[in-house]
Write a structure and sequence with these properties.
Number of domains: 2
CATH class of the largest domain: Alpha Beta
Helix content: 25-40%
Shape: globular
Structural class: alpha/beta
Largest sheet: 7 strands, mixed
CATH superfamily of the largest domain: Medium-chain alcohol dehydrogenases, catalytic domain
CATH topology of the largest domain: Quinone Oxidoreductase, Chain A, domain 1
Number of helices: 11
Radius of gyration: 20 Å
Bound molecules: zinc ion
Oligomer: single chain
Length: 345
């Protein structure tokens, strides 16, 4: 089968490899859609510990497909079933895992991060992933592409649970990408009166506005724009959906009294931000950060997609065969389009 494997920094090759064996209690998945995430781009650009010429790794942690083969002893699933697979595999028995937070397990294994992922025709699903509920059946009304991109959506929902949106809130999202649009979708679903999307790129804002006309787009003079939209009160929720320190440093400036600020995007390793903590104090701000998502989040957002509450399909703007995976990466890195998907016939 074909697989896109990372052999080191900047070295991604589409190679022929054997179809993975099916382990007892596990399954073999025929991949139908696999979406490109910032994590893939970072691993490609910077390399990753343990990945080299002798130890290549198939990338991709956002994927869906059909069950090709069930391992011995697996029940509750059947061959041919359409499924979406959450990437984080916990040990199943530690405190984090039993609390439902297996994405913070110390023994964490993750597809496309430290075990082979889904930029491949087939991916082996380990027994622990099957036993721990990583595999979720999806209905015909959920596309494979949306089911793959759901991994990002689940991470956004993890954040949403922290910052919360009340009916009538004004929500400011900084960073117009698929992630920003997922925050916008949840905010609108929760009854936000105004959703302001900010980005330096006018073309990216226009692309987002075409998908969701209810958002207010702002490319410059953000403070002024927020003041106009809120009568000087500020935004109830501010989300930084990008990895820029200066954005984190200015986020409190846009927040209303009793506002909530969420740092969704992490900063590149070694970078930090200087925060004006007096704004937290005097405006009584709640500041949160989140990373990854639980199986609970993953299933919840699949439900939102299935019920038509947020249009994730519209965010998948590029489709490529596996041979063009480098093109998909280049376009994602250059922010051409919102979400790139590798699709298999
Ligand atoms: Zn992702
Ligand atoms: Zn664990």
């Amino acid at each position: 089968m074909k697989a896109a494997r990372l052999y080191g920094k900047g070295d991604l090759r589409v190679v022929d490899v054997p179809v993975p064996d099916v382990e007892e209690g596990g399954m073999l998945l025929r991949v139908r859609a696999a979406t490109v995430c910032g994590t893939d781009l970072r691993m490609f650009a910077n390399g990753s510990a343990g990945i080299d010429e002798e130890h290549p790794l198939t990338l991709c942690h956002e994927f869906s497909g059909t069950i090709e083969k069930l391992g011995k002893g697996v029940s509750g699933y059947e061959a041919g079933q359409r499924v979406s697979v959450a990437p984080n595999i916990g040990c199943g028995i530690c405190g984090m895992c039993v609390s439902g937070d297996s994405h913070h397990c110390k023994e964490l294994r993750a597809f496309g991060v430290n075990i082979d992922g889904a930029f491949a025709e087939y991916v082996g699903i380990p027994a622990a992933a099957v036993a721990n509920g990583n595999v979720t059946p999806i209905g015909e009304n959920v596309s494979f592409e949306a089911a793959a991109a759901n991994e990002a959506f689940a991470c956004v929902y993890n954040s949403f649970e922290r910052y919360g949106v009340n009916p009538g809130d004004t929500v400011l999202i900084i960073g117009a990408g698929a992630i920003g649009m997922m925050h916008a979708g949840l905010a609108l679903m929760a009854g936000a009166a105004k959703v302001i999307l900010n980005d330096l790129s006018e073309s990216r804002l226009a692309e987002c506005k075409a998908i969701e006309p209810r958002i207010i787009t702002v490319s410059k003079d953000l403070k002024e724009a927020v003041d106009i939209e809120t009568g000087g009160a500020g935004a109830n929720v501010v989300i930084t959906a990008c990895s820029v320190a200066a954005v984190q440093e200015s986020a409190f400036d846009y927040a209303a009294l009793n506002g909530r600020v969420n740092f969704f995007g992490g900063l590149p390793a070694g970078k930090d931000a200087r925060l004006d903590t007096n704004q937290i104090h005097y405006k009584q701000l709640q500041v949160s950060g989140t990373t990854r998502s639980s199986h609970g989040h993953y299933r919840k957002t699949l439900e939102f997609i299935s019920k038509g509450l947020v249009d994730v399909d519209a965010l998948v703007t590029g489709r490529y065969p596996i041979d063009s995976v480098r093109q998909a990466f280049d376009n994602a890195a250059q922010q051409k389009g919102l979400k790139q998907a590798i699709v298999f016939g």
